[in-house]
Write a structure and sequence with these properties.
The protein is mainly β and 187 residues long. It contains no helices and 14 strands. The strands form 5 sheets. A 4-stranded antiparallel beta sheet has the order 3-10-11-9, with no helix packed on it. A 3-stranded antiparallel beta sheet has the order 6-8-7, with no helix packed on it. It starts with a strand and ends in a 20-residue tail after the last strand.
Length: 187
C-alpha cells in the first residue's frame, strides 16, 4: 500500500479475495474541499447553510459540513454511487473505507488509468507486479449491479479495507478475469 508516500504491504489474506489486483486511491484532499470538517464558520448560521448539490468552496457553507472538491458542491458520505443519486459518483477518501458524493470528473470505471486521480471514483486498479502498466478505473460495489458492463465482478481484493470492488468479468463471486492470481497491494 502506498499511503503518504510510504509503501506498505497489503493483506495477503485468504478467502474470497480477488488476488492479483493493486488499488490506487486518490487522497482525501482530492475528495474534500478545504475546511470540510465540522467547524462552525463565523457569520454562517446553521439554517443558512446550503443543501446537497449546491455550489460551495468550503465545508462550513454546507449543512452537512462536507464540500466535495471535485465539482465544488455540498455533499455527503457514501459507500456506492446509488447513495449519491443521479449525476454524482461516490469518490474515495483516504481517511476511511467510505467516500464522498462528487460530480463525475475524470475517467469512468473500466477506462485505462495509471493513477487514481485520473478516475471519477479515485480508484485505479493495476495487476499486481505491473504497476508500470496501465490499469483500469474502478468503483466500490456491494453487488454486481453496482458495476458497469465489463466490470461485473464485485469482489473484495486484499487491500480494499474489506470493501468489494468492480473487477473485470461478467458477475458473481469467483468469476474475475483470468490471471487475477497474485498478491494484491494498495497503491
Amino acid at each position: 500500500m502506498i499511503h503518504g508516500g510510504r509503501a506498505m504491504r497489503g493483506d495477503a489474506g485468504g478467502g474470497a479475495l480477488a488476488r492479483g489486483w493493486v488499488l490506487a486511491l486518490a487522497g482525501v484532499l482530492g475528495a474534500l474541499g478545504a475546511g470540510a470538517g465540522c467547524e462552525e464558520r463565523a457569520g454562517v448560521s446553521p439554517a443558512a447553510r446550503k443543501g446537497f448539490g449546491e455550489a460551495c468552496a468550503d465545508g462550513a457553507e454546507c449543512a452537512s459540513s462536507v464540500c466535495a472538491a471535485i465539482g465544488g458542491v455540498c455533499s455527503k458520505g457514501c459507500r456506492v454511487d446509488r447513495e449519491c443519486g443521479a449525476g454524482y459518483v461516490c469518490r474515495s477518501r483516504d481517511d476511511g473505507p467510505d467516500g464522498v458524493c462528487s460530480k463525475p470528473q475524470g475517467r469512468a470505471p473500466g477506462e485505462a488509468c495509471m493513477t487514481a486521480v485520473e478516475c471519477q471514483h479515485g480508484r485505479c486498479l493495476h495487476r499486481a507486479g505491473a504497476l508500470d502498466q496501465p490499469g483500469h478505473c474502478s468503483a466500490y460495489c456491494e453487488s454486481a449491479g453496482d458495476c458497469p458492463a465489463g466490470l461485473k465482478t464485485c469482489e473484495e481484493i486484499a487491500d480494499s479495507a474489506g470493501r468489494k470492488m468492480c473487477l473485470p468479468g461478467e458477475g458473481g463471486a469467483g468469476t474475475a478475469a483470468p490471471g487475477a492470481t497474485g498478491k494484491a497491494s494498495e497503491r
